[in-house]
Design goal:
By secondary structure, the protein is of the alpha/beta class. It folds into two domains: 4-53 and 358-399, Urease, subunit C, domain 1 (Roll); 56-352, Alpha-Beta Barrel (TIM Barrel), CATH 3.20.20. The chain is built from 14 helices and 16 strands. The chain has helices spanning 68-71, 78-89, 94-110, 136-148, 165-174, 189-203, 221-232, 251-263, 272-278, 294-300, 323-332, 338-345, 347-352, 376-381, and strands spanning 4-10, 16-22, 27-32, 44-45, 50-53, 56-60, 115-121, 153-159, 178-181, 206-211, 238-242, 267-270, 304-306, 368-371, 387-391, 394-399. The strands form three sheets. The chain has an eight-stranded parallel sheet with strand order 6-7-8-9-10-11-12-13. Strands 3-2-1-4 form a four-stranded mixed sheet, with no helix packed on it. A hairpin with a 4-residue loop joins strand 2 (16-22) and strand 3. It is globular, with a radius of gyration of 21 Å. It starts with a strand and ends in a 7-residue tail after the last strand.
Length: 406
């Protein structure tokens, strides 16, 4: 394919540059002041646009997406959401998952996402894994992954609570990329963590656990995971998602745990949209934010990513499948700077997914998002629906807006 020249784009540091993309290599070939690069047919004028690294979505639930109206509206706490989803899961079909997940991925792509890690339930109504076809959701997402090749990278993590080893191996044999789990829902969280790491090590795949999705300061999933990784010498990548309880402990304790997490290379994914919705409902006065200890983790050198988690399902009735919405919440509720928040949904998210760096820089992967904005704070604060999305140096999505005021 012919190189693609993006003219007059403003970079995150404020400089205006022309950026040459090479679709054959999928990399950014050149970055130069305007007018210095040879023009080519089919180039794009990005005057008035901010050119950013494309976001990645490090934590989605595509099999659950868009089921809020279908599954009923629970009161809004985590146990009620789990119960509502399990009841609905009894009648979920492979085609149902494929259709809803496809719609959600289209929303993610239009908003700038070029890589997604989704968790997928082993679909049973009661979690017993005994009857029915628990792998139908996984098969739907494997089909979707094939359809998305060239437009979006899709990683699939198997989400379960104490599923038999045999079922986990079947899921990996089908093509799942890594193992997930919810130790805090297990009868024996420590054994659950150790078993997932053992199976993952046997298969040479990574792990991404739902950890400490509670405001209880005594929750131990993250510490158990850090200790098990340290003692077992686990090599493939390890991610802990949620880690809400870390934000409920004393600052000195959060700092100690953060250092333990950094020492063993665990990445942490914070999920502000869903955790702000679900957590703290029993505390009507001085309601806690329900986020992990972001500053302690960053100060310790932990790779911190941020995701959207649920999109209009029993765990959260809202959500726009937009990483810039996620980043905006990290500014308002997590007290990060706009640049730190943007990093969590771009560089941090790609690092957790094990992907090379992307952005408008020579030699970087040409996964880019052009937003009609002049600064990072404007991009996060004003929603900015006009966007162009590039994956591997190719334009894969363009959203234009017509606004009429009378």
């Amino acid at each position: 394919m012919a190189p693609l020249l993006l003219r007059g784009a403003r970079l995150p540091d404020g400089d205006v540059r022309d950026v040459l993309l090479d679709p054959d290599s999928g990399l950014v070939a050149r970055v130069a002041p305007p007018g210095l690069l040879p023009s080519a047919p089919g180039g794009l004028d990005l005057t008035g646009h901010l050119l950013l690294p494309a976001p990645a979505e490090p934590h989605a639930h595509l099999d659950k997406a868009l089921t809020w109206d279908l599954a009923g509206a629970p009161p809004g706490d985590l146990p009620s959401a789990v119960a509502a989803w399990r009841a609905y899961a009894a009648r979920v079909t492979e085609e149902d998952v494929f259709r809803r997940a496809g719609r959600t991925v289209d929303e993610l792509c239009a908003n700038g996402v070029t890589a997604v890690r989704t968790h997928v339930d082993l679909l049973t109504a009661d979690g017993s894994y005994g009857d029915g076809d628990p792998l139908r959701g996984l098969r739907a997402l494997l089909r979707l992954r094939e359809r998305l090749r060239g437009r979006l990278r899709l990683q699939i993590a198997v989400l379960h609570v104490d599923a038999p080893d045999e079922l986990l191996h079947r899921a990996l044999d089908l093509g799942a990329d890594l193992l997930g789990g919810c130790p805090h829902l297990s009868a024996d969280p420590a054994a659950s963590v150790e078993r997932v790491l053992r199976v993952a090590a046997d298969r040479g795949v990574g792990v991404d656990l739902h950890a400490d999705e509670t405001l209880d300061p005594g929750a131990e999933d993250l510490r158990l995971l850090a200790r098990a990784v340290r003692e077992g010498g686990f090599v493939p990548g390890v991610t802990a998602s949620h880690c809400v309880s870390l934000g409920a402990v004393r600052p000195d304790e959060a700092a100690r745990t953060a250092k333990e997490v950094a020492a063993v290379g665990i990445g942490v994914v914070t999920l502000p949209l869903t955790n702000l919705y679900l957590q703290g409902r029993g505390r009507p006065s001085s309601t806690p934010r329900g986020l992990t200890a972001l500053r302690a983790l960053l100060d310790a050198g932990v790779t911190v990513a941020a995701g959207g988690d649920n999109v209009r399902d029993p765990f959260n009735p809202v959500g726009r499948a937009d990483p810039l919405e996620t980043a905006s919440l990290l500014v308002t509720a997590g007290h990060l700077s706009p640049d730190e928040a943007l990093d969590a949904v771009t560089a941090g998210a790609r690092a957790v997914l094990g992907l090379p760096a992307a952005g408008p820089y020579e030699g970087a992967v040409a996964d880019l998002l052009a937003v009609r904005a002049q600064s990072v704070s404007e991009a996060l604060g004003a929603s900015c629906p006009e966007r162009l999305v590039f994956a591997g140096g190719r334009l894969v999505s363009r959203t234009s807006v017509v606004r009429e005021l009378y």
